[in-house]
Amino acid sequence: MVEYNHTVQRDEALNRAFRALSDPSRREIIGLMREAGDLRVTDIAKAFSMSLNGVSKHLKVLENANLITRRVSGREHWLQVNWTTLQAAYEWLHFYKRFWSRRLDALADYVEDPNNEKGKNQ
């Protein structure tokens, strides 16, 4: 039962991450933070043509998915990317990239095999 619960929790975290990253504005926020490092909420808002409230809603989704973390210093809120969560999403995608690359390579080998009658052009 413990293994099942761990898998469900990991899958839910991955679902939240991919759901958050499904929006182009949120992916752009992550990209901006990747380039600049820690940023204040106001710095992020300046990079977008939307209200501070709109940017804050996107940031909240990213925080809920554990893709960014917030540090409060006085009146300023500093945000940074949580690379651990992004790494988990990357590893999930990378597994399937390798899987499909191997499958497509095998298909190409099969089709291009001169000894394979079905692979020859007719």
Give a brief rundown of this model.
By secondary structure, the protein is mostly helical. Helix content is 67%, strand content 11%.
Describe it for me?
By secondary structure, the chain is mainly alpha-helical. The protein has one domain (2-119): Winged helix-like DNA-binding domain superfamily/Winged helix DNA-binding domain (Arc Repressor Mutant, subunit A, Orthogonal Bundle). Helices cover 67% and strands 11% of the residues. The protein has five helices and three strands. It has helices at residues 2-21, 24-36, 41-46, 52-64, 83-112, and strands spanning 39-40, 68-73, 76-81. The protein has a three-stranded antiparallel sheet. Helix 1 packs antiparallel against helix 4 (52-64) and helix 1 (2-21) packs across helix 5. The termini are far apart.
Name the CATH superfamily assignment.
Answer: Winged helix-like DNA-binding domain superfamily/Winged helix DNA-binding domain
Mass-distribution shape: elongated
Reading the helices and strands in chain order gives HHEHHEEH
Give the beta-strand count. 3
Tell me what portion of residues adopts beta-strand conformation: 5-15%
Instruction: Give the neighbour order of strands across the main sheet.
Output: 1-3-2
Main CATH class:
Mainly Alpha
Q: Structural class, please? A: mainly alpha
As residue ranges, the low-confidence spans are none
Mean pLDDT: 83
Helix content: 55-70%
Radius of gyration: 21 Å
Query: How can the largest sheet be summarized?
Result: 3 strands, antiparallel
